[in-house]
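note to self: dont lose this again. the chain is below, predicted strucutre after it. 189 aa total, dont forget to put it in the shared folder this time
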Amino acid sequence: MMLKRLIPAVACAVMLVACASPGEGGSAAKPATVAAAVAEADAAVAAGQRDKAFALLKTASLAFPTEKTPLVRMAQMRFDANDYGEAIVHAQDALARDPDDLLANSIAAVSGLRVTSKALGELTRKSKLNGDVKSEAESLAKLLRTSLGEDVLVPNKAKPTPKPTPKTPASNTSRTASSSSSDPFGALK
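---
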């Protein structure tokens, strides 16, 4: 009788142990180094598997919380995908680890400008840009001009200068006036 109860209990214990052991699938293993994780993510991007690459970088950022490289790569991937909000978040995380990182600063700044310009475009389109919002936008534009050292942020296209028309002698004026319909007052000159 004891054997009848012991065999199912052992079978259940074996199945529970098998389920609890880590297998090949399921959770991602911790990468050996940051460089290995980044290389694997680069290979995934080259194969067109951007989601897998992002997941690999996310795992690397959790495994190596003091490293900025996976965070900068994630910020760049989100920026390239026009997901500027996420790009800013990842760039700020990278800047928390290294405040002097030029790429992370650039991603955060340009992403912020793109979000801002989209919002200002929407406000302008809806004709709601007035008062404090307008003055703040103008002061931001002034700050940008000062930072960039430019008087104009978006230069207008230069209008082509008209070519001077050659002067015709007075004796040819009547013939020119009759043959040229673009200047009806040419004979009066």
